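User: Can you fold this complex?
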Amino acid sequence: MKGFLLFLVLLAGGVAWSYTHYFSPDARHRRAASAFLAQVHMDELARVAMMAAYRTEQEKGKVTAAEVACMEGMTVVQFNEVLANLLKKKLPRRDIEVATNFYRTPAGEKFSSMILRAIAGRVPSLEMKLEGEEPSLFMEEILELDAYRKSLRSQQSVDPLQLSLDLTLDPDMAELERVQRRKCLPASKA
Amino acid sequence: MKVLALIPWLLAGPLATADETLDPVAVDATIDLVRITRVDELYWTLSRNASREMFAEKRITGSQLQCFESVEIETYTQAIAVFLLRDLRIEEIQSALDFYSSPTGVKFQHMAYQLNWEKNPKEFPLKVEGPKQSMNLAELTALGRFRDSAGGLRLSCPLTYLNRPEALSTIGAIFLETRMVCEDIK
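Assistant: Here's the predicted assembly.
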């Protein structure tokens, strides 16, 4: 009897945990945001940008190589989690899913790659490795991009790609960095 | 009698009457825009194809077909130019001309017309030769800038702009008048 009760308690706990983390609207919303950010590599970009700033500080002698190496311990997943939480507060799940569907198409993938390349070109300190030739869009793909952007305009919605780029400057992102900074840098620098 | 009255209009072209009141710079820019976007060639070719179909279906005779084919592309150039001059501001025309004369504009038109021809050569009989082209981000940005410019709002797709009843009635009138002349409809 005790064993059965324990089983029930564990089962109920498992169901509650699964619901909270996987099946609740909030979890699905967060997962959609996370998938979008991974699709357009905005989480990677945020991490690369932060590390570029630390490399610059290292060149200026403000942080040591060991401290930079410690900061390197931050994973893309951590950036993805914080950005996903921010993105889900700003956009409904449906909008995020529509955007993910577009950015998964060849036209969308090329377009997001174009944007990343443009950012990398303008900020060489990011030291982003871009392989292959610069992508370009054929007429059919331009029409797909145009249809996607028109649908955003008609719903007076913003492109999650643009929004997530803006969110990399959100105070929550700075807090993520601060937490790691406290772990890696002495109190006087942190 | 009606037919005789139409002949000088067809020969002289509608701009001859409009010329006196219009700014010659605007007229030149508009004619350049019509030619560079090849919309005159498109409607001229469509009307020639229509007359050839009528001949194939034995609805017109060989001499009537010759009469149809004697209509020059310039007639369409001028009719469309007059329509544009009446409907658009010079800023719009100039901005569209600047874009379609630029390397990005030339490429965009090539890509758009090539796709149109591939999709429906009957309705878009302007064959565009050459390899399939594509646009990089800088070119897409230039295209986006044009779309948001004075001319781009209405002329980012000249064919859509001309595919409205007001424009089509102007262009269709040339074909109807040609029919009246060539088929001797009184």
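The first helix of chain B runs from residue 2 to 12. Confidence is low (pLDDT under 50) at residues 1-19 of chain B.
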